[in-house]
Specification:
alpha/beta; four-stranded mixed beta sheet; Aspartate Aminotransferase, domain 1; binds pyridoxal-5'-phosphate; 412 residues; 2 domains; single chain; 15 strands; globular; Aspartate Aminotransferase, domain 2
């Protein structure tokens, strides 16, 4: 595990954190990828301040008109006939639980399929349906009994030892086997992250999603896209589902929806799947007015003309610069990403995953370059993640890579 010094930060400005002594740290990962608009975007700050002054909270019995505005806005961008939504969560973990409940109640089936290396949240159930079993070690109730895990489309380390020119998406074929031999025979849904974020910024090959959709149709599975990390412009599109043409039945959102880190979540679904009663999934702080206002004002910014084009442009810049770093430094096996969601696969001898070096890079970036980065799999993985806020300037992106380059030069 890497350990960052426990500075006390006083202010956040743009993508910079400032400590007690006035020392500035450049945040290359937008908090935990949730500060889509940086630390203090003026539009969101103003709208949230106004809302707090007027009415910070009322029971969700009365918040529907506010929620409708956010859902109507989101639904303008949703693919595959997704035209309804639910906003009674404030975290991505329970939004994913909500999505699974929708699929189970609608289909009457029980089992849930997810990918190795996936991360769908921290509650016992969300941990249970995630493909990172080490996090369940001490918690017997987090083994979700109807949960199956299947190999991830991790092309850099293909679990089927294939290569892009030979790839027939055996990882999709393997799902049929899991349904036939490992499931109870009653499978409700498949949940995926369009880009496996925590698992290591893993991007499936283009044909993966088409085949996955076909498989879901064949077996009658509801396809859930967990866009908690990829949603709200992170990939240069409002939803990664649009970019990759995923055609999901349900999309879950959190993180970036709150703009400046205000917790909020949403579940978007085709109307036929809008089957829950309020008492079946509702939290005290779900759809509270601070969250809903943060979501509304964040969407106003992200949907301004040119905003997403600008993210795509800056994403290309970041990708080009990180690919140059990968060519220059032997410890980078691959730079991969899309939009402003990038990862560097850190390797050692014989291309083996090098977690120690990965954490060393992150620690040194913080201590010596005042650059904040994060590692995959809670510090147990070997991918350095680079995901600045969508509002980072070109100069800031160049500066992040410059500092990273200086750190990498000290590793061999
Ligand atoms: C893809 C994904 N889904 C769900 C979650 C859980 O979200 P939260 O921490 O808001 O519960 C996370 C958090 O990191 C995530 O990355």
């Amino acid at each position: 595990m890497h350990t960052l010094t426990k500075e006390r930060f006083r202010y956040g400005k743009g993508i910079t954190l400032i400590d007690d002594s006035g020392k500035e740290y450049l945040d290359g990962v937008s908090g935990t990828f949730n500060l889509s608009l940086g630390y203090n975007h003026p539009h969101v700050v103003t709208k949230v301040q106004e809302q707090v002054a007027n009415l910070a909270h009322m029971s969700s019995t009365f918040t529907e008109p506010y929620v409708e505005e956010v859902l109507d806005h989101l639904i303008q961008y949703t693919p595959n006939g997704i035209d309804a939504g639910w906003m009674r969560d404030i975290t991505g973990s329970t939004a994913n639980e909500c999505a699974v409940k929708l699929a189970q109640k609608y289909t009457g089936a029980t089992d849930i399929i997810s990918l190795y290396l996936s991360h769908h949240g921290q509650t016992q159930f969300a941990t249970g349906i995630s493909g990172n079993a080490f996090r369940r070690r001490k918690f017997p109730n987090s083994a979700a009994p109807n949960s199956l895990h299947v190999p991830a489309p991790y092309c850099y380390r293909c679990p089927f030892n294939s290569s892009p020119d030979k790839c027939g998406c055996q990882c999709v074929e393997a799902i049929s086997d899991a349904i036939e031999y490992a499931s109870s025979g009653s499978v409700a849904c498949m949940i995926i992250e369009p880009v496996l974020g925590n698992g290591g910024n893993i991007i499936p090959p283009a044909k993966y999603f088409k085949q996955l959709r076909q498989l879901c149709n064949e077996y009658g599975l509801i396809l859930i896209a967990d866009e908690v990390q990829t949603g709200i412009g992170r990939t240069g599109y409002m939803f990664a589902s649009e970019l990759f043409d995923i055609q999901p039945d349900i999309i879950t959102l959190a993180k970036g929806l709150g703009g400046i880190g205000i917790p909020v979540a949403a579940v978007l679904m085709q109307s036929r799947l809008n089957v829950l009663e309020k008492h079946e999934h509702s939290f005290t702080s779900g759809s509270n007015l601070i969250s809903v206002t943060a979501a509304k004002s964040t969407l106003e910014v992200v949907s301004e003309p040119g905003f997403l084009e600008d993210v795509r442009f800056k994403g290309k810049l970041l990708g080009t610069l990180l690919t140059e770093l990968a060519d220059k430094h032997d410890c980078i096996g691959e730079a991969r990403g899309v939009g402003l969601m990038w990862g560097l696969e850190i390797v050692g001898e014989g291309d083996a995953p090098d977690t120690v070096k990965c954490n060393g890079i992150i620690d040194r970036a913080f201590a010596e370059q005042q650059l904040i980065l994060r590692g995959s799999r809670y510090g147990y993985g070997n991918v350095v993640k680079v995901r600045p806020s969508l509002t980072a300037t070109e100069e800031e992106i160049v500066e992040i890579v410059k500092r990273l380059d200086a750190v990498l030069a000290t590793f061999h």
